[in-house]
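USER:
Class, as today's exercise, take the chain set out below, and explain how the chain folds.
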Amino acid sequence: MSLSAAIIVKNEESVMQRCLDCVSMWADEIIIVDTGSTDRTKEIAAAHPKVKLYDSEHFNKDTHYGDFRFNIAKNESIAKCTKDWIVWWDADDTIKEEGARLIREVAAATTDDCMFSFVCSYGALRFEHSRMFRNGKGVEFDNHHSCHEFLNSGGRAQHMRNDIVVEHKPGKKGVPSSVRNLAIMEKDYFERGFKDQRTMFYLANTYRECGRHDDAVKMYDEYLKISAWKEERYFASLYKAQVYAAVGNFKDAFPSIYKSFLEDDRFAESYCLMGDIYFHIKKYAKAKPWYEIALGMEPPADSRLFVSKTHYDSYPRERLRRIADELGEPKEVTATKEGNKGKQYKYRLPTDRELAVHALNALSEIAKDGKWVTVIPEDDWQQKMIKNHGFDMADGDGMKLELPEDLRDKSKVEWYCRSAGFVMHGPFPKMESKNVA
């Protein structure tokens, strides 16, 4: 069993040695294809005993960044690998010793001609990346995505390794990656005619990152017309809502958040965004239930895209503390999360009576999933309200919740929305919010 690392570089001297130190922990050979460096990148790479250094046949120092194609350059590096297994690597990637050890273990223990995905982290975001495959014909980056490219599996089985984490840590200055990527993807879409859902999704994302809000919304809409992938549709709806929220257009942000709930209601990012809107306009009592819901959630275990782990823990926790300050409440985070089915979650109901009823209904959905939910009443009225709604009193300082019979056919999303005081008109998702201005 032997392993090749396939890397493309250009002006990476600030991270080159770090990259080589990481890769040498697991690779037997390091293939580096330089695409036009004018700094010390090649000098640093050539000094390493495992490195085989090549100049790209397609790109050089005079190539404009908008004319660069990552798929072609990466295929150059793959074609030069000679070992049993290949792992493609970015110069900005890092890995810990345990992850490097696992890469070698996986290669040594696998006899199948298959492909492995690793977890990649980029700041707070975590997503799945196909990274490792047996050397052979048919595995290369596709020809229709010059940026945000992906590996063709060639029909091979694909396996996910959640225990191998690659951390992306950009370390160089120059043209921002979003500006470079936008130039490449606009060429793919408008000149090369690549109008598939992947191109649309990532082009819309890059418009959003570059602050081109109108273009982002239009491209998300085009994407949603043709896409069938549920998780990616969720993120497109969420990001479209983020665009509207970023410019203060909350009226249009709300329907897109509702749309994200309908696509997939397991992601805390949407609940945090709803809380953020109310927090921004200082309606703290309305913001609070959304952060509490987020804090009671876990990142979906089967997610392949851009989960932000902080939105399930530290972010809503910090927001709830700030809300407590603003409302003059005890500085106590009232939602706790253990992370396993059957564990206890504690919530304090909103003091607003209407919101308290809706929040109780929303929290009962969490209990329905097999989790113990304890709701702490704020006053005698709340205790009476709970009894009138058919909830059983639990021992101690809270109530054990069970979904009332007349709500069991209701949409979970409907009650989440009601927990923040939204008025429902007709069957979900026909919904209007109260005026938040």
